[in-house]
């Protein structure tokens, strides 16, 4: 099952934590989040990580002028691991150590346009494999008689779950791409309608001016004859 992360805003910062009582059967967790970043603002999030785990983060700007944002990823020591300047999307993977990793989305360069941002976190090697196997051994009996191996069962289950998680991830990204493309199309549609109305208004004004000018020419000729 998909595990959602809890988001706790802290004055421009937020803390991402797994929900209380979450099971750790799988060593891989993922979560996605969409939020609106106002113009001239910067939002940061924290993600606790373990040593020798893996943090993969993908983000996309779904809506907003320019479809761009600044992105920072900092280690628990405060070192800048990733810096993207005015990018519309990005994918980054880092091997982690114990501590809180901070990633920020910066829209301070924009004074008018707010941005709608989608990001997804994939956390690998966050569970306890050894404890999982011990828990499974309690429910598997008669393996010698049935000529089964617990390791093969766990490997098969983890392989299936990894593929399902990958499928869910791809579907989530496709939905994000679809949302961004739909916003672009709607923006283009509004822009085309606006300039079409402007063009129509100019044509009406020009036509009226032409009729008035022609009418005034004939009126001048009639006056000169009399």
UniProtKB/TrEMBL annotation:
Alphabetic keyword roster: Endoplasmic reticulum, Membrane, Signal, Transmembrane, Transmembrane helix
Membrane topology: Single-pass type I membrane protein
Phylogenetic lineage: Eukaryota, Metazoa, Chordata, Craniata, Vertebrata
Transmembrane stretches, start-end: 194-214
Ranges for domain GOLD: 42-123
PROSITE patterns referenced in this protein's UniProt entry, alphabetically: GOLD
A cellular component term, taken from the record's GO annotations: Golgi apparatus
Cleaved signal peptide residues: 1-23
Record-stated family: Belongs to the EMP24/GP25L family.
Highest taxon above the source species: Eukaryota
Pfam families: EMP24_GP25L
Protein localization: Endoplasmic reticulum membrane; Endoplasmic reticulum-Golgi intermediate compartment membrane; Golgi apparatus, cis-Golgi network membrane; Membrane
Name of the protein: TMED5 protein
UniProt organism field: Pelecanoides urinatrix (Common diving petrel)
Main location: endoplasmic reticulum
């Amino acid at each position: 099952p998909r595990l959602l992360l809890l988001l706790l805003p802290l004055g421009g910062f937020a803390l991402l934590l797994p929900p209380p009582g979450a099971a750790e059967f799988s060593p891989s967790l993922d979560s996605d989040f969409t939020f609106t970043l106002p113009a001239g603002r910067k939002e940061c999030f924290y993600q606790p990580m373990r040593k020798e785990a893996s943090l993969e983060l993908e983000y996309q700007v779904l809506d907003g002028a320019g479809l761009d944002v600044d992105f920072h990823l900092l280690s628990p020591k405060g070192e800048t691991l990733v810096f993207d300047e005015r990018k519309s999307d990005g994918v980054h993977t880092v091997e982690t150590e114990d501590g809180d990793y901070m990633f920020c989305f910066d829209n301070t360069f924009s004074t008018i346009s707010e941005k709608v941002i989608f990001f997804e976190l994939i956390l690998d090697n966050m569970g306890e494999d050894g404890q999982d196997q011990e828990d499974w051994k309690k429910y598997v009996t008669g393996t010698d008689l049935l000529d089964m191996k617990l390791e093969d069962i766990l490997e098969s289950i983890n392989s299936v779950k990894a593929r399902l998680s990958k499928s869910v991830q791809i579907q989530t990204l496709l939905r994000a791409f679809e949302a961004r493309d739909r916003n672009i199309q709607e923006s283009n549609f509004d822009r085309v309608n606006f300039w079409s109305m402007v063009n129509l208004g100019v044509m009406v004004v020009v036509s009226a001016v032409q009729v008035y000018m022609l009418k005034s020419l004939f009126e001048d000729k009639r006056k000169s004859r009399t």
